[in-house]
Amino acid sequence: MISKIRLIDIARKANVSLGTVDRVVNNRGKVAPETEMNIRRILEEFDYQTNLMASSLSSKKRPVFNVLVPKPLGEDYWYKILTGIETTEKAIMQFGVKITKLLYAQDDNIQFANLASQILKTQSDGVLLAPLFHKEAKVFVNELEKENIPYVVIDSPIERSQALCSISQDYFQSGVLAAKLIDYGLDKNDELLSISNLMYSDYFEHVQERLNGLKHFFETKTTKKRTIHFLEIVNPKFEKLEILLKEKLLQFPKIKGIFIDNSKAHWVGRILDENNIPEIKLIGFDLIEQNIRYLQNGMIDFIIFDYAENQGEQGLQILFDHVVTKKSIVKKIKMPINIITKENLEGFLPDHSA
């Protein structure tokens, strides 16, 4: 019997995350059946005992990690990110790791800067960061680099930074993919409407990359000359979007496809549904509960997403691997770009996916 086997050893041997092993060991959460069987086989092989894990951290120093991510608004994209972070948190706390989560409002760059400053004034052995506000984030990571504090960036890369690892979707290619998908559903003379949140374009560079990908497709990847109209709104509310969208559709009746560069496709789906406009193709991003509803009733045709939970889970695990287990780290991880329709939705819902 190997009495000193650790949770991280099981994860490495099974080639899965700490959080996945934790879910199997503690019988919580969903894990793919074949993955669970493999993990349990390894647990039996090493005669794993849960109570041995607390003593597996040999160093007397207990690392302190800070997490700086947006505060969720209900069960949105950031709720999923935070869920993934908390999954790994449960797995690594038995190693004596202390984790402080600081959540900032999604529209408040001042609060982000203040919380970043707070981290710099306290002990921190590593930072997990989701940088919605890139101007402020660049200032923050420059200070982290001066202090030699390792950090992992999730959701949106920070260009020319020295991040330990950057985990995100390829936003440009996701925009290209969205354009290609929606173009398949349009006739030759049909027109397209692109909806953007100007706050997102100013602060969220990755959202602008999606729009760049859309434009790139129609400029270089197709011989079709598709007319694209643009609706740009500063920090939109549903009621404002409804008025402007109805005006746009009235002004340009040939619009038969709508691309929205963020997770608010359900707003557009609701407007189309309530105004009985079923003939318009709609594509958006992020598999959140609100979008699922309008995908199921046919108002949204395609949702493009990555598993947000995995970004949070992997981000914290990579920080742990670097600081505690001294494992070598991959500098960049690109999340898979998944295409969801009404027909294949069931296989991507939590009860059917790891």
What does this molecule look like?
The chain is an alpha/beta fold. It has three domains: 1-56, lambda repressor-like DNA-binding domains (434 Repressor (Amino-terminal Domain), Orthogonal Bundle), CATH 1.10.260.40; 62-169 and 311-336, 3-Layer(aba) Sandwich (Rossmann fold); 171-305, Response regulator (Rossmann fold). It has 13 helices and twelve strands. Strands 2-1-3-4-5-11 form a six-stranded parallel β-sheet, sandwiched between helices. A six-stranded mixed β-sheet has the order 7-6-8-9-10-12, sandwiched between helices. Strand 9 (281-285), helix 12 (289-296) and strand 10 (302-305) form a beta-alpha-beta unit. Helix 7 (171-184) crosses helix 9 (205-221) and helix 11 (265-274) runs parallel beside helix 12 (289-296). Residues 49-59 have low confidence and may be disordered.
CATH class annotation of the largest domain: Alpha Beta
| Tally of separate domains | 3
Task: Please give the count of helices.
Answer: 13
Structural class: alpha/beta
* Assembly level: single chain
CATH topology of the largest domain: Rossmann fold
Note the gap between the termini. 30 Å
Q: Ranges with pLDDT <50 over ≥5 residues?
A: 49-59
Please give the largest β-sheet: 6 strands, parallel
Give the SSE order as H and E letters. Answer: HHHEHEHEHEEHEHHEHEHEHEHEE
Question: Over all CA atoms, what is the radius of gyration?
Answer: 22 Å
Q: What is the CATH architecture term of the largest domain?
A: 3-Layer(aba) Sandwich
The fraction of residues assigned to DSSP E strands is 15-25%
The strand line-up of the biggest sheet is 2-1-3-4-5-11
Shape: globular
Identify the CATH homologous superfamily of the largest domain: Response regulator
The overall strand count is: 12
Helix content: 40-55%
